[in-house]
Amino acid sequence: MIALSSPGPAPVWLGDQPGQPIAPRPTGDISFNAGTSALGCPAVNVPLLAVEGMPLGVQIIGQWHEDARATAMAAWVAGVA
């Protein structure tokens, strides 16, 4: 399966500011990766897209125990993009 790696690009993060609460998710929303992690399926993220100059990846999701196949497909996608 092919899907976006996240619902959008990572937010611009200027670092934690002294005296302010620590940012809970400075690198973005994990919702598009949580399912594959919970199922133990391989997901290879390929940095193919950008939104307003910020990277947005595409993930190749494979079947359980098909890590090598998912990685090979991701390498092919990265090579032809």
Oligomer: single chain
What proportion of the residues form beta strands (DSSP E)? 15-25%
Broad shape:
globular
The Cα radius of gyration reads: 15 Å
Please provide the count of β strands.
3
Question: Considering DSSP H and I runs of 4 or more, what fraction of the residues is helical?
Answer: 25-40%
Low-confidence sequence ranges: none
List the secondary-structure elements in sequence, H or E: EHEEH
Total helical segments = 2
- Terminus-to-terminus distance: 17 Å
Structural class: alpha+beta
Biggest sheet details: 3 strands, antiparallel
How would you characterize this protein structure?
The protein has helices spanning 31-39, 67-80, and strands at 2-4, 43-51, 54-61. By secondary structure, the chain is α+β, with helices and mostly antiparallel strands. A three-stranded antiparallel sheet has the order 1-3-2.
Which secondary structure elements does this structure contain, and how are they paired or packed?
Layout (H helix, E strand, L loop, with lengths): L1 E3 L26 H9 L3 E9 L2 E8 L5 H14 L1
Antiparallel strand pairs: 1-3, 2-3
